[in-house]
Amino acid sequence: MKVHLSRFVCTDPASNLKRCQTEAQTAAEGGADLVVFPESFLHGYTREADPQATRRMFEALSGDHPGTVFAFGSMTEEGRNRMTLWRNGREAARYDKVHLFRPNGEEVLWQPGREYAALSLGDWTLGLLNCNDVRFPEQARALRLRGNCDLLLAIAWWPWRRDAIWSTLLRARAIENGVFTAGCCIAASESPLEPFSGAGNHVFDPLGNPVPTPDDHSYALDRDLLGQVLVDPRETAVDVTRVNIFPVG
Fold first, then answer.
1. Residues 5, 186 contacting (CB under 8 angstroms)
2. Nearest CA among 152, 148, 141, 144 for reference residue 203
3. pTM (whole model) above 0.85
4. Which end of the chain is more exposed for a tag (fewer CB within 10 A), N or C?
């Protein structure tokens, strides 16, 4: 699978929408199977983008490039932080962020999602994660065991000063589940009301090794690596729900 991860700089919503369209079109014409944009890339935390106008652009763009899946993550809609995936002119999947990040006041901005989501794409199944979700290994494990996902796709608005944490969590989710993980983070926000320096993009293979990129955007995922994991949780995970707490003395 050929994956394009945007390094998006968020400015005003109208300009963001135009730049998204241009980049997505270029990536699709360059042969990308999957084109990904980061969390809140159109409006950040404080700006507004019209969901209906946004969806019209997603529909037209994906209709023009039916061989490519576009992950537009994310937009504010129906009170949710919503990741939306499109293919061939229609919405193929959506995921509402479950684990809101309280230090940024996200519980005031959005309602949490109540279910996990995945998308079957030919030989691949994509499990969807949004930023703070990567701190919760039970979500990634559920996507692997119950969704049979082999690529965990995480979008984010994650600060550069904590890039080491972001990359470590992505690598851990890859190793413990024997899957690919791809993390697409906002590069920066240049709004005077919301300046922000984002973390990096990272892709790890099922063994936890970084997948190289020739241009900081393009990644080729070799499916054969899925068969080289030492421990496959689908075969060896044990469902234990009881914890014995032994008293002292």
1. no
2. 152
3. yes
4. C
The pairing of strands 124-130 and 118-121 is antiparallel
Omega within 30 of 0 (cis) for the link into 197? no
15 in Cβ contact with 48 (< 8 Å): no
Q: Are 27 and 35 in contact (CB under 8 A)?
A: yes
Name 139's Cβ contacts closer than 8 Å, sequence gap at least 6: 98, 99, 116, 129, 133
Rounded-to-integer distance, Cα 55 and Cα 198, Å: 25
Q: What is the pLDDT of residue 193?
A: 84
pLDDT by residue (tens digit) across 158-183? 999 999 999 999 999 999 999 999 99
For 194-228, how does the pLDDT look when each residue is reduced to its tens digit (9 = 90+)? 999 999 999 999 999 999 999 999 999 999 999 99
AA letter at 221: L
